[in-house]
Specification:
Blueprint lengths: L12 E2 L2 E2 L7 E7 L2 E7 L5 E7 L2 H8 L7 E6 L21 E4 L12 E4 L10 H8 L4 E2 L4 E2 L1 E6 L4 E9 H8 L10 E4 L3 E6 L6 H10 L7 E7 L4 E6 L17 E6 L10 E2 L4 E5 L12
Parallel strand pairs: 3-6, 12-19, 13-19, 16-18
Antiparallel strand pairs: 1-2, 3-4, 4-5, 7-8, 9-10, 11-12, 11-14, 15-16, 15-17
Length: about 290
Amino acid sequence: MGVWRYTEAASASDGGKLFRRVSVRHIGVDLAKGSFTACFLEEDDSTHLATYSVTPEGLAEFRGQLSSEDRLAIEVGRRAVNAPRSWNRASAGSSAGVLKPLDSSATALRAATMEIEVPARNFGVLPDHLRQQLLAVEPSKDWLMEYRPCRVILNDGSAYDRVYVAEYRSYIKAWGRWPDQDPGKQSLRIEDVHSIVESPVRLPARFANQMYAAGESGMGYCTFVLGLRDGRQLSFVSGNTVDFLDLPSEVTPDMIVEILPHAGTRKLGDYRHGAPYYWCLYRNKPAKSDDSPR
């Protein structure tokens, strides 16, 4: 869990009138199943950690630590499957989403509870024929969104074997930052797509879903072992998506017979990584007036 800081207005005087100095703390919350850890970054750059239970008593204790000037961001871990649905992955200062406090009656956390308000983006509409092709791809699912690992052929004939084709609102609520705002992500335009099929190199959905259900192994990463039909075992360390992996050239997805979440070595050089992939975001065809970007 990271912390961040930015400059707030300090005390000042104007015409003999004194203004109150606003002391701003920045708080990062890592939400897990049954508990959450808060990192408090004070104005003097000192920090401290505190862990609270996801119970009325724990939430009340945390709420009692907050003031109206505090700045809060929440990281929802993959294991936090019973977390309030109003808690979403967010980043303070990110232009991807506006942190918007919910009404106090929505959750016991009140002032600490936030959601992402999706900003306007002009993504292309998914045509009906591509929608049917996309729905034929078996999804993998975590609790934040549904993934459909695809092979995409563009209008110019070029093909990409590792592409997530996703509805843009689902994407931003799960990831908090658009692909073109994240140097670690690549993207394609839905307007350039000619056809969609299931990726031939994806991790089979049943194994990906086991990993998503098990949750991330640490903050922002997953460790796991793949068992192969010939008895070999491959250790992996990946980010929060696990559908596209850097398999050895001689290994195909149909050779995988099991996945062992949170297993394997973390020693540098003894594990493999996730493979590079693309996002291709789209808008649904407007069916209601509220389907347009907000």
